[in-house]
Write a structure and sequence with these properties.
Length: 189
């Protein structure tokens, strides 16, 4: 077996280790997950161009068992894709697993949670964002009225500048009191 195909060069692996919370074994395991989603389009040897150019479409990503049960999965894929399409390159896919891993610090998870909950991408969590987030977190078990009461309560507690929405700092305050908001941010590969 002298001709074993090397997926990433030493240089690529070192770069990945530097910018993720993974060691090389983890990185190759994540690559295995990436490739098995689309074996025909993802080559065994990945150049830098492949890793940043070849994408796996959202419909295939939705089959990942780690994310299937996560009510935010579609939104998560969108946030990690550079063009917001939800289609992911390997680099983006690796980033996503890295931030969901146990080794990622809580503050980093919180910053991504904020992006994921910020459905209209205006860098704050308004009533509509909070309502949608709550709907997802509670898996549609609350009525619209019940959600409205909770959203108002959250704003009452955290909207310190009375702008009717949560800034990132205000959001951090809320999640420090209610860790439930971050529960969806742990996934093991
Ligand atoms: Ca928003
Ligand atoms: Ca505010």
């Amino acid at each position: 077996m002298g001709n074993q195909i090397v997926t990433f060069s030493e240089e690529q692996l070192n770069a990945y280790q530097d910018c993720t919370f993974f060691n090389r074994k983890d990185i190759l395991r994540v690559f295995g997950r990436f490739k098995e989603l689309s074996p025909d389009t993802i080559p065994m040897k990945m150049t830098t161009k492949d890793a940043t150019g070849l994408k796996i479409p959202l419909q295939l990503l939705e089959k990942l068992p780690e994310f299937k049960e996560n009510p935010f999965h579609q939104r998560i894929f969108q946030v990690f894709s550079a063009d917001n399409s939800g289609n992911l390159t390997f680099d983006e896919f690796l980033d996503m697993f890295s931030i969901f891993s146990d080794s990622a610090p809580r503050e980093l998870k919180a910053s991504y949670a904020f992006k994921i909950y910020d459905y209209d991408n205006d860098k704050s969590l308004g009533k509509t964002d909070l309502d949608k987030t709550l709907e997802c977190l509670t898996r549609n078990e609350l009525t619209e009225k019940e959600r409205e009461i909770i959203v108002n309560k959250v704003l009452e507690e955290g909207d310190f500048d009375h702008k009717g929405k949560l800034s990132y700092v205000e959001f951090e305050y809320i999640i420090s009191r209610d860790p439930e908001f971050l529960n969806t941010f742990h996934i093991r590969i």
